[in-house]
C-alpha cells in the first residue's frame, strides 16, 4: 500500500500505472465528443420513434412518425420541392462561386487575400442581419427598385425581386456564396503553376488549358462548394420564410413548425432525421465524386 | 528501386532496335541568345547574355540557385519574356513567339504531370492538343512509353507511380511532339542518388538516340560533367565560363568555376616581372602575360600534384619539399594534406596502391607538378 | 500550485456554507416569468415588506416554462406567470394549485372582465390571477384606409391582393379565420369547421404578400413594401411602424379579435404558499397595474384609466386564448395551406 502510494508518478519497471496523465487526457478528449455530440444525436434519433400523448413525450418505439410522413403527399412534395430548390441554389453557386474564385485566382497574388476577405466578410455578419439587409435592397421600396426607377429602366417599383421564387434563389445564393467560393478557390490555389505551364508548353491554348487542366483539377473544390450550398439550403428554415412570401414554405420550416408550433417533437425529430440522412447522402455522393476526381 | 532497374534495362533493350521516333525525329535545333537579359524592377536576375546552343548538343547550364540558369530556361521556353535581347532558333528571331507555338518542350522540376490523367493520357496530351486522331495518338504514345520503359504503366495515375517513373512519363510527354529542343529544369533533383545516376545514363542515351538538342539546368556539378557535351557555368546572373566538362574541370577560368568544381588548390600570389608569380611557396614561373604587381590566384587540381621529386627535372616541372600533416584513406584514393613553404596548404589525391606505407603525418616529402596544369584565375566579378 | 488549489477548494466550500446558511435564514421566493413582469423596483419593495429574498428566472418561451416546470414537478419555482391557454395543461399535469382568495385582498381590484376567465378556472376554483393583457388586432395603413376597416373581410378583398401581411402561426390564423366565419368557439372546431377554415385560408393566401414570423419581421416587411393591412401580433407593432414612418393604426374589427392574458399562478410544489400569495396580492395592487400599462404598452387588469390612456379599451371585445382542441391538427392544416400553391 505504502509502496503504491510512493510510486505514483514514477513508472515502476514492468508495471504501468493504470491512470497516468496522458491516459486521462485522452480519455477526456475522447469522452467529450461522445457526451457532447453522440449522446444528444442519439437521443434525437431515438425521439423520432416516440410520440406525444396529451402534451408529453412517450418513449415507446414505433415507426408511426415515418409512416405518417411518407404517406402524406403534402409533406413528401414539400421535401421534393425543397430538394429541387437546394439543388438550384447549389448549381448556381457552383457556377458563380467558380467564376469569382477563378477571377480572384487569376488576379495578381497580392490581391488574393484582400479579395478573399472581401468575398467572405458576409460570413462575419449575422445571418438575420444579412436577410434584413437583402430584403431592404430587394423590397418594393428598396434600393434596387429605386435605382431601376431612377435610371429609367422601370416605370414604377416592381414586385419582381421579393416574395417569390426568384428572391429565394437570389437570397440563398448570396448568403451561401462564400461557402462555395472558399473551397473552389482553395483547390484552384493548390494547382501548381507548372501544370499550367506544362499545358501551354505542349501547345494548349488558354481555353484548352482551362478545359483539360484547370477545370478537372479544381473539380473536388467545386463539388465541395456545391455540397456546402446544397446542405445549407436544404436545412434553411428562415431564408425562404423571410424572402419567399407565400411561396417560401420549405422542409426546414415544416420541421420547425413541429417544434415551435405543434409541440410534436417526435414528429419533428423524425423529419429532422430524414433531413440528416439526406444530407449525409449528399456528402457521401460528393465524397464519391471527389474520390474519382481527386488524384493529387 | 527494383522496378526502376528493370524498366531502365527494358528501355535500353528497346533502344537498340532503331525506333520510329528516331527515324522521324528532325534534327535538334540551334538556339542563340543575343543580349538576352532579365530584370524585375531594380532586381537584375540576368545580365545581357550571349549564348549559342548548337544543334543536337547536350548543353547544361550549371550554377547555384539565383545564378540565373532557370531564368534562361524560362526565357527560352517562352514562360517569361526577357527585358532585353533577342532569341533565335536556327537563326530566326522567335522572341515574340508565344510559348504554345515554340517547337520546344519542357521537363519540369516537379514533373508537372496532370494528376487526373493516366500516364498515357499525360504522354498523349500534346498530340491531343494538336488534334491528332485517336489511333495515331494511341500508337505514338505506346511507342514513346516503351522507349522510356513504361509500357506496362500506361494506365496508372501519377500518384501511383514512383519518382523515377514519373520522371520518365514527363520525358515521354516532352519528346512525343518531336520538339527541336528539350528543356530540362533540374529534372533529377528529387531523385535519390542511385536512381539519379541511372537516369543520367538514360537521359544521355536518349539524347543520342533522338538527336534533339537538350538544354539542361542543374546545380549539381557531377551531373553536369557526366551528361553534357558542353557546360555553361553561371553565377550572379552572368556566364562565368562555357566549355566541355574536362575543360571546366581542369582549366577553370575563374575563381568561381574553380571553386564550383570543388577542392582545387588555390595559391595566392602577386605577379612580378617576367611572367613569374611571388607566392608563399616561392616564386613560380607561369610564363603568362601578367601585369607586374597584379594580385593572382593560381589553381591546381589535387590529382595533378605528385609525390616525390620530379623525374624529368624539366623546366615545366615545379618541385617543392613539404610536410605531411594529414592522411585520409577514402578507398581507391587517399587524400593527403601537405604544408609547403610559408604556411601554404596543398591537397593531394593519390591512388592508394601507389602510396608508400611510411607516408604518415609528420614525415617530409617532396611534391611536384607540371606547369601546364596550373592556371591563373580570372577574378569573379 | 497545490496550495493554490487547496485554498480555492476551501473558499468554494466556504461560499457554499455561507450561501446555504443564508438561504436557511431568510425566506426565498422563486419566480418564473417573462422579462418586464417583475421589475426591480417592485422586487425591492416586496423584499423590504416581507424580509424575503426574491430569485427570478426569466424565460423566453412557453416551451421553456413547461420544460422547467415539468422537469422539477413544480418544485423549482413558487410562482409562475403564464398565458391563459397553457393552464389546462398545467392543471392536468398537477403542476399548479388553486388560489386562496382569502389571502388575496387585492383580488377585488381586478376589473369585471378579468374576474371570471374560463380558461383559468378548474373545478369551480380560480387557479390564477390575471395581470397583463393584449390582443392580436388588425393593423392598417391610414393612407389606404382613411376610415378604419370594420371587418377582417378586407384581408380577403382582391382589391388588396399583394398588400396583405398574414402571420406564420397556425393557431392564430385558424382561430381568426374561424371568428370571421362566425364559428361559436374558435378554439374548438368541428371537422366541418376545419374544412371551412382551410378553404377560407387558402382563399386568403392568394391575397397575401408574405406570412411574417415575428414582431420585427412584420414591421420590416410592412415598412419596406407596399403593405396596407397586417394581421398583427400585438399592439406595440403600431408604435414600431409609426417610428419607421408608416402612418399605421390598429382596430378591433366587428368579428372581435384574439386576446391573451398573462396570469400569476402558484406551483403545486411550492415550499411557501403564504409568500407566494403575498407576491400575487402585491402584483394586484393598482399602482403595479398602472406601471404595466405605462411601461410596456400592454393592458393591465386593475387600473382602467391607465388602459384608457393607451387606448386599450376593448378587453370585452376579445376572445381570450384557450387551449386549442388539437394543436397537431392545426399545425398540420396550416402546413398544408402553406404547401398548397396559389395562382
TrEMBL record, chain A:
ABC transmembrane type-1 domain mapped to chain residues: 79-286
Source organism: Dongia sedimenti
Membrane topology category: Multi-pass membrane protein
Bilayer-spanning residue ranges: 23-47, 85-105, 111-129, 166-188, 209-234, 267-290
Stated name of the protein: ABC transporter permease
Top-rank taxon, per record: Bacteria
UniProt similarity note: Belongs to the binding-protein-dependent transport system permease family. CysTW subfamily.
Subcellular location: Cell membrane
Sorted UniProt keywords: Cell membrane, Membrane, Transmembrane, Transmembrane helix, Transport
InterPro entries: MetI-like, MetI-like_sf
From TrEMBL, chain C:
Signal sequence, renumbered to the chain: 1-26
Protein name: ABC transporter substrate-binding protein
Database matches in CDD domains: PBP2_polyamine_1
Transferase is among the record's keywords: no
Membrane-spanning residues: none
Chief localisation class: periplasm
Pfam families linked: SBP_bac_8 (PF13416)
Entry keyword set: Periplasm, Signal, Transport
The keyword Nucleotide-binding is assigned to this record: no
UniProt xrefs under PANTHER family: SPERMIDINE/PUTRESCINE-BINDING PERIPLASMIC PROTEIN, SPERMIDINE_PUTRESCINE-BINDING PERIPLASMIC PROTEIN
Superkingdom in the source lineage: Bacteria
Family matches, as InterPro entries: SBP, Sperm_putr-bd
Location within or outside the cell: Periplasm
Species of provenance: Dongia sedimenti
